[in-house]
């Protein structure tokens, strides 16, 4: 492209006005243009070579992004397309997503791709979209994937066997890795060796990983940990049974992501900045926070309180309010409380024995799977009549929410006698189902309410009492 000034002219072939003017973009330094190209899809980045001679070497030198969404739709063309891109690009690499490639069929090919010089310096690697067959035993993770340890910032290893501790490099360090997501078979020793080499790790997500029974966390940087244990009927001999947070000074979120698939024991020894906890469920046989201990969600000891926790999500705690009250004593500064199943209330709140959370802190309560039956009404009414700074209480109802039912709920919940005059109460019809939080949201339980709403009836059935 030339830099001389010209005017708009009409192309005879198409009758369209084509702007022809000074090419200011091409005047930018190579480093800036390379950053621009690296933000494009793989195909678009490669096509910039056709712009002019000035652009031809830029794509080959810009950081390479091989994203799964950029691959050809036809599987028969994907492998050839990836091979061609890697052969033409000089590197370095930024992102490589193995979307749609089955290791059983292309193990040697994938291993060869990962050894390519085009991926040297890779920052993100993603096995999560790989086309694995559940009927086959997972393939070992290609050893070449570990050669990026020094540069990786994001890694998702999925559906493969991680190298055992005997096969791990003696000094495997990930000095820049901030996000580690895993769905693999890995031994306990190998897992701890891996985590000990992640000095700046902030997010750890373990979904259905097997091969270890106990995970110990000692991390100066970890901020979020989420996990789903294998299903109870899993045929795997060694499954995730115990999580111990020994020392995590920056940990803010502890998220069991499926209330039906959790380790039997969770112990939190040192987590002074913990802010978000849940979904806690009866599937956790033993739960400890400092010296506070719960057995199947019933308090054994409440000698420790964690005042940093602001968001708490609880699965079914029946048959009475006692369990909820005990958790609010353990976490006295909770501001948002999510209850994914309603429960009975067999005791009245005693104002002579006030609960700090209800008196000073609790601002939002969400009750899911609400039918409006007497035990559920009595339970919910405890918050209506005693949460003094409550701003809102949402009910995801398993009923039609017609006018008659709504009027009955208004009366039975004694909304006219609410402890917090400014509190608003919202009823919406919602679908039944397990509520699994979103690991990536600021408030990971927010969608438990929002996503279950029947959007067709949302406007018609929305009710607020002033």
From TrEMBL:
Name this protein carries in UniProt: F-box domain-containing protein
Domain F-box: 22-58
SUPFAM superfamilies, per the entry: F-box domain, RNI-like
PANTHER family with a match to the protein in the record: F-BOX DOMAIN-CONTAINING PROTEIN, PTHR32141
